[in-house]
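User: Hi! I'm working on a homework problem where we have to compare a predicted structure to a textbook description. Could you give me the structure for the chain below?
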Amino acid sequence: ADPIIIDKMKEAANIVEVKGYVTKKIEGSQVVEKIVVQNIESNEDQELEVNGVFVEIGLIPNSEFAQSVVALNQDREVVTDCRAKTNIPGLFAAGDISSGPDKQIVIAAGDGAKAALSAYDYLLHMR
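Assistant: Happy to help. Predicted structure tokens:
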């Protein structure tokens, strides 16, 4: 998480930080009631009673496949302009791997449409 989010979490009275665990199950009959987590060192399971779960995949883009092909920034994102162009003519990037400021599914979908239109325009005008 971003440092500011971690600071706010530590100030909150109703949040307990649990580190060194992976989520195994989310359980409940009509709504989320508990999660089962496993300690990554001891492999022991622990059940936690909860009222909800927020799923966060992560902030580090999966860009290893592109690192020797295209320019990446300090966050390992593919550097793009406002039309989804990279430093390689005819190569476009969209979604969370690109260097846009926000990482949300609706933005990634819009980026994909923009990249497709840019690629179409590139193909129409390439010589």
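For your comparison, note the following. Strands lie at 21-27, 34-39, 45-49. Residues 62 and 97 are 7 Å apart (CA to CA). Good luck with the assignment!
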